Prior knowledge:
The protein is mainly alpha-helical. Helix content is 78%, strand content 5%. It is rod-shaped.
Amino acid sequence: MKKAACVLAIICAVMIISAGAFAAETKFAVVNLQKVLELSDAGIKAQKEMDTRINAAGADVEKDGEALIRMREELENEAALLSAEAYADKVRTYENEYLEFQRKYEDYEYELYMMESELIDVVMNDVVELITEMSQKEGYTMVLESRVSGVLYADESIDITDEVIKALNNQ
């Protein structure tokens, strides 16, 4: 019994010593990438570029939507005045225009999604490269994204978001 207790004490001591050594060699950090995208010069520039493209493409879609609304209003106003055949022709024309508008709108949304992905990817590639360099320089074992990596709590002392923004702006 004393021998088992002695072995258990030795095992516990080894675990405590090795845990202490592991903790001394381990250095973690967290970064809020959304904040980096929103506050860094590169992220702001990408957002402005997206806004410019959205406004340009959105104007065409909005114009087509307004024309479609006018077409529907005309159809409703003329319904009682038109023959059944003429009304059916106008309804078919409206439905075709509506389907075309839906296709254009879906294309518009897809283009916006692709554009956003492209612009964000450019910034994120720079951010990841910068974080890698910072991690190697500062000796971080691991850097986690604070919003989506499952981090429930991280002390502010290990949050390097502001340092990343500052370094990114200085590039």
